[in-house]
Amino acid sequence: MERGDTERIEITISSRFENIELVQVIAEHLCENAGVDEDGSHWIGMAVREAVANAIKHGNKLDVRKKVNATFELQGFELEITISDEGQGFDPEKVSDPLNPQNLMKTSGRGIFYMKTFMDQVSYSFEPGGGTSLIMTKNLAKGSGIASTKA
Amino acid sequence: MKATTRTVDDVEIISLQGKITIGSGDTQLREVISNAVNSGKNKILLDLSGVTTIDSSGIGELVGSYTTATNRGGKLKLLHLPAKLNELLHVTQLITVFEVYENEREAIASF
Hints:
heterodimer; A: alpha+beta; Heat Shock Protein 90; globular; B: alpha/beta; Transcription Regulator spoIIAA; five-stranded mixed beta sheet; 40% helix
């Protein structure tokens, strides 16, 4: 695949943790095929891993009958990833900041932070009848996206 | 995840290999640390050189392990951080919490 091509990939999984890696691998391969270096592809894959894990655990609450859908759309250098679940949604404003000293030693609450660190933009869409979509974008021309360069 | 343990100068060196991710390795890590602490080990050195993948759940378990050891009067330190794990600890500022060593002898002597 030449860098700059248009590509669309979609996968639907049941809510099992062992399926997370399937979606992560697709993300990493798509990025590598688009010319992103190994580290950059890894960090985007990790953002996807965190998003799918949240969809399974917090969205679908580990109900294997509920699905998680992942869509990857690459147009030129712009990658848009949408991870959708069948959950009831949440209030993004209530997500605590893991860098707050009060939260530093918490054992959870870093997933969304990592997504925001590795991607350019993270947003949410909540369906009235239930279902949450997390949309992440990344300009692949910007470089590897290694965490320390953004911190 | 696979964990192997050896003792050097009263320091319990736990070498972790494989993934520490949600549903695969995160709860195992918790059990390994709990077992060590419950058996009276209060100097724990986690060798992470064999960790291939870690996610936010795995990071959370590292924090939990540190807290478990500290609350029981022990110490937990890290050895041989893989580069990507190092990055993840830096961006979350957890690198300020852990004592990290690249040399096993130095790490053992620090307890």
